[in-house]
Amino acid sequence: MNKMLKLENVRKQYPGFLLDCSLEVPEGYITGLIGQNGAGKTTTFKAILDLISVDSGKITVMGKDHQELNQKDREKIGVVLAGSSFYDGLNVRQIASVMEQMYPQFSGGEFLKLCGRFGLPGDKKLREFSTGMSAKLKLLTAISHNPRLLILDEPTAGLDVVARGEILDMLRTYMEDGTRSILISSHISSDLEGLCDDLYMIHGGKVILHEETDVLLNNYALLKVSEAQYRRLERKYLLRVKKESYGYNCLTRHGQFFLENYPDMVVETGSMDNVIMMLVKGEGV
Ligand SMILES: Nc1ncnc2c1ncn2[C@@H]1O[C@H](COP(=O)(O)OP(=O)(O)OP(=O)(O)O)[C@@H](O)[C@H]1O
């Protein structure tokens, strides 16, 4: 399978923080990067886009070293970064003409049609936009020049549930052409679990888990067990353990096995937040 993006042991040191990240985005995939505030998501995105220098490691974008991308290659990438935007005195129609001059592939007509569909008036200045409108505009400008790879750092940050849903719908529509790919970050797991094919969890600069979303939601589970039940559990099936007032909370990758074979045990599947919590707060077995 073609890799649209590959990071191999990319390291970046800041005072009190070390990013050490390896990840891949295969063609046709939506890959999610999930992590709490300060986990290293934005640092990873800036490294990919060559906005910061890295200390070591290798970053390959569409088969080329990320520092060797030419203008044509860069036109195949759409980006949403926190904070970046157009001058706020412009309106949507003016942005369309700026984009048309920058990107030969950009269709102003198509862009304005999409803006209309997502409730962005053509003659309203950016400074009059709500947070949700600005987020939608950023994503529409990133996808309207027909890129093959989207790199989206927290595109749903600060949005209400309706605006988040609209952003996720835009991304699903973008993916209908099967050769496109997305790397998207969020600290809200529910945004990513319904969208992504696979997920990387990042914590303290390190990737602590990489799994297909289906496996994560169906096979990873919390076992809530008493002291006696815990003593009988085979340790090899457990990833992390946390002492609780009732006994132990255990993270396993074999949730279906426990559901089928231990009818008396409390087995909770389907929550990415639980998995993250146990990976961060639980102890090794
Ligand atoms: N220019 C910088 N100089 C020093 N430290 C930095 C710099 N940029 C980021 N950091 C540190 O790197 C760590 C990771 O920050 P980063 O912005 O990548 O996290 P994040 O996962 O994107 O978090 P958030 O969800 O809050 O945006 C933090 O501890 C931050 O303070």
From TrEMBL:
InterPro entries: AAA+_ATPase (IPR003593), ABC_transporter-like_ATP-bd (IPR003439), ABC_Transporter_VariousFunc (IPR051782), P-loop_NTPase (IPR027417). SUPFAM superfamilies: P-loop containing nucleoside triphosphate hydrolases (SSF52540). Signal peptide: none annotated. Keywords: ATP-binding, Nucleotide-binding, Transport. It comes from the Bacteria. Residues 5-229 form the ABC transporter domain. It comes from Blautia hydrogenotrophica (strain DSM 10507 / JCM 14656 / S5a33). GO terms for molecular function: ATP binding; ATP hydrolysis activity. Pfam families: ABC_tran (PF00005). This is ABC transporter domain-containing protein.
